[in-house]
Amino acid sequence: MQVELSQSLYSDILYHAPDAIFIESLDGIILDVNLQACKLHGMSREELIGMSVLELVPPEQRETVKKEFPNFAKGNLQMFEGYSLHRSGRNIPVELITAQVQYHGEPALMIHVRDISTRKALKESDALNNAIMQTLPGGVVRLDADRRIIWANAKAIDFLCLHYDPKTQCYHHNCDCQIIHEDNTPGDLQKDWPGYLCMDQLQRMEETVLGFRCNQCPIRWAVFSATPIVDRQTRLCSGAIVSFIDTTQQRNTMSALRESEYRFHLAFDHAPMGMVLATPDGKFLQINNRFCTMLGYRWSELIQKTFFDIARPEDAKACQKFADTLKNSQATRHSTRKRYVHKDGYDVWCQITVTIVRDPQGNPQYCINQIEDLTPQLKAEAQHQQLEERLRQSQKLQAIGTLASGVAHDFNNLLLAIESYVDMAQTQYQRNIDPSVALENIRQAIRQSTGMTRSLLTFARQTNGHRQAVDLKAVVEQSIKTLKPLIPANITTVIEDLSECPLEIHADPSEMQQLLMNLVVNARDAMPDGGTLTVRLQTERCHGKRPLLHLWVCDTGVGMDDQTRQCIFDPFYTTKSRSQGTGLGLAVVHGIVTDHNARIAVTSELGMGSQFKITFPAKCPVLDPNQTQHPIPNDLRHLVLIQKDAMLRQVLGAMLKEHKVLMHGVDTMAQFEKMLLVNEELKCDLLVCDDAPESLPTESLCRELKARQNTIRWVLMTDRNTPPTPMAFASQALLLRQPMPVRELARHLVEFMEQQS
What we know:
Elements: E1 3-4, H1 7-16, E2 20-24, E3 30-33, H2 35-41, H3 45-48, H4 59-74, E4 79-85, E5 91-103, E6 106-115, H5 117-135, E7 139-144, E8 149-152, H6 154-159, E9 162-165, E10 170-173, E11 178-181, E12 186-187, H7 189-192, H8 194-201, E13 205-213, E14 220-230, E15 237-246, H9 248-269, E16 274-278, E17 284-287, H10 289-295, H11 299-302, H12 316-328, E18 333-341, E19 347-358, E20 364-373, H13 375-430, H14 436-460, E21 468-471, H15 472-483, E22 491-497, E23 503-507, H16 509-525, E24 531-540, E25 548-555, H17 562-567, H18 585-595, E26 599-604, E27 610-621, E28 638-642, H19 646-658, E29 662-666, H20 669-678, E30 686-690, H21 699-708, E31 713-718, H22 727-730, E32 733-737, H23 742-756
Parallel strand pairs: 1-5, 22-24, 28-29, 28-30, 30-31, 31-32
Antiparallel strand pairs: 2-3, 2-6, 4-5, 5-6, 7-8, 7-15, 9-10, 11-12, 11-13, 13-14, 14-15, 16-17, 16-20, 18-19, 19-20, 21-23, 23-27, 24-25, 25-27, 26-27
Helix pairs in contact: 13-14, 15-16, 16-18, 19-23
């Protein structure tokens, strides 16, 4: 439909319209424009009239407008959004409304062009704001004056359990939604929600912590802030903006952290071992009840101390060294055994394991110390050792009766031989015949008697396991001589020495004799009809390691089956009758072998005999008796003997004089102290004492002798394995076993002085 415009109407519409108006021909040529059209394009009326409408369109849209223009001309397309081109080249978003009119009697188009830049900018701004609101880390809600939620982002919809009502065009809470206060008490949604409170009070609500529960879901917590929207002129509230941050995860994390911290303190305080949190320099940060109980302190007393305060003064250097190791080492865990001082003054031995916690730069931050009280363990070990010693001694006392019965016969024979040789010597002396042969036989008989007595004493004495360098070959030979009365005549004894060189082991001679006796008696009982008992020594060279010394005890007896062989070292296990054995012999053997860091292996078959192989780590070569001895220097020839037996002092002095050793003999240590007071120049290179209380030096005398002559050495004549007090004397004394022939004693003393020269 075409509209015929009067001249006056045309002028009013064209020149008074607020928007740009173009009069165009049906082929797109501009016939007339108003003032707003000139402003829209930055051109004058004269410039615009006669232009093609396509020249006022941005190049990228001209093809589209060219295609749609016929629809405009026909009246099929009356509204269109696009862009107009300003003279400066700026694109202006516009909305076009077209209508067909008669212009000077000819059909034409009147195009109404409205600048929609502001509207489009607002629309884009709203879209941007909505996108921003949707991407915020928290939720946002917009309330109107009627307290209706008219807008909410996705996080708010999910958190507050909102659903949209198209009829009312607002959001509503689920009917079962419940609000929870920070102290876990229930609240009223209509009264306590910050969005409503800020509208009632017309003031901003800051950081209110609330929880929401909906549809039986777990409570979700958030920190809310609400701001009322107030008209500045009327001071009326037109709504509110509510924002919140979901703190459910943080709250759960903090709750779990508090629970973890509570459990840690619970485990820390009630741990069965001592727990200490300390700085790298040993200052206590936290200690538990068990550690306080271990040391006898109250918590308030002990927390003020350090690891250095509860250590022995003599352990200060070791403690500082351990602390330096913790600071400088890259390892995260260290373990050591230490002793601390109880409040009552006694030592508490502990096993301490330290775990180091480091900062991101790798520097030690603090140490977690786990401290185990070793007192029960040490007591158990001591009791176990004591019971083991009692077991061995019990077995010794059992075996000594068997040994004594065999030795008694030979001992009586030796006494008869001595008596006979004495009578012979007296008769020869009366007849002026040289009695040297008879006297030499008496000497040999006495030596045999002394050796038998010494073996019995050493074997039967209860000892504490004194270890020394032992020539195992000599022990074997002496033991076989001692045990000879126990071996029947139908058993042949063979000693084989296959060692490549003499070797010593670090052992207790008494326990070695006990070991050999048990194995020999066991072999004897395994050969009731006779056979061969073989004791063999064999060395083994190991490249890069200490040589090994093997001791074999073999018999040709009845042998053992597999079941018996697996049980022979169990205490009280025996295949003999009750009258023949208790089952302790081989158990004691196994204990002795274990204590000496040795190994024992058994091979046996029924009817094929048994072989016990014991492997010892060798200590060092036995001294060659033919090696060159160093002569005793003239200034190291002074020996003092403390011995009550005047005859022994006289004979020993005469023998030492042959080696140019000057001996001073006194009865007691008190007499020797008087000699020192009277003669300040008295020299003592070797002090030889008898194992008797009145013959042992005191601590003060040891210090005085050491101060007077630093090169002094000590010798103790004893038949015990346990060193006597004082320790200053015992720790440096050479032990000489007694009884011993005087000439052999003199030889040992001379050799000792030669070794010290």
